[in-house]
Design goal:
Length: 279
């Protein structure tokens, strides 16, 4: 019953909320140029060149250990790369860090109520109290947690915590939202609800960059695909092109569900002439 109510709420009472979510800061595109990152002498991110564009949902695919989470942390600024540049468009007076947010695979809940978690995020941005109250009400309705607003966030189910974490990040009105496998630990029904919320975030004007192991989910949500293997972007294409037949042999094997660890021992970075930069 709760799932049905949540899905219904996603399509009602949100018009005013989405109007408020318009973001004119325009910190995108985000460019990564010759980005590499090493930990204790081992390179985990290698020679990455890519551009993340506005209003494009990008899904990052790849096997465990490919570097998906680390790449998201570098894009979000939590990790500084050992080499290369990570550059947002920087209009005069705009601080990019104030216009992007990230949600992790395991949601981080503050030791306070559901509403308190939302309020803490908005206070950090110095949102006026009158605006906070209305925005929190609208978001909790949208993510289906209104009836749970006064309970401890740490008492929520895993799926409810993930919805709260995503809603809390969305409340900050980010121009770009990084999601690190947000449905990895959820059952199909909870995954469906989260995907509905992600769709609404996209409709509100926020650009989504998300990692996932779920190929069906990538088919449903992605506009573009990044295929990452051993820290390298081996495929960067539209979702339609990728699922019709990726050019890279390892990406082809990944789509077939084959184990990749025994494939090519040495990888050559793609030549820069094959890196697609769409302006």
């Amino acid at each position: 019953m709760g799932i049905k109510i949540c899905i219904t709420q996603l399509f009602n009472n949100t018009e005013l909320f989405f109007q408020r979510m318009s973001n004119n800061s325009k910190i995108l595109p985000l460019d990564l140029v010759d980005v590499s990152h090493s930990i204790n002498g081992t390179r985990y991110i290698k020679d990455i060149n890519l551009r993340l564009r506005t209003n494009v949902t990008t899904m990052i695919l790849g096997p465990n250990g490919a570097g998906k989470s680390l790449l998201l942390r570098i894009c979000h600024g939590l990790t500084t790369p050992s080499q290369g540049k990570v550059t947002f468009l920087r209009p005069s007076g705009v601080q990019p860090k104030n216009h992007h947010a990230m949600v992790f695979q395991k949601p981080i809940m503050l030791q306070r109520s559901v509403m308190g978690n939302m309020e803490f995020a908005l206070r950090s941005q110095k949102t006026p109290k009158t605006s906070r109250v209305l925005l929190i009400k609208e978001i909790l309705e949208t993510i289906g947690l209104s009836r749970l607003s006064k309970i401890s966030a740490r008492e929520l189910s895993t799926g409810e915590q993930q919805r709260l974490a995503i809603g809390r990040a969305w409340a900050l009105k980010p121009e770009i939202l990084f999601l690190d496998e947000p449905t990895a630990n959820l059952d199909p029904a909870a995954t469906h609800v989260v995907e509905q919320i992600i769709g609404k975030i996209k409709e509100s004007g926020t650009t989504i960059v998300m990692s996932t192991h779920d190929l069906s989910q990538a088919r449903r949500l992605a506009d573009e695909i990044l295929f990452l293997y051993r820290g390298r972007v081996l495929e960067n294409s539209s979702a339609k092109e990728f699922f019709s037949g990726p050019k890279n042999d390892l990406a082809q094997s990944f789509l077939k569900g084959e184990l990749l660890w025994w494939h090519r021992q040495k990888l050559k970075p793609p030549s820069k002439k094959n890196i697609k930069i769409i302006k």
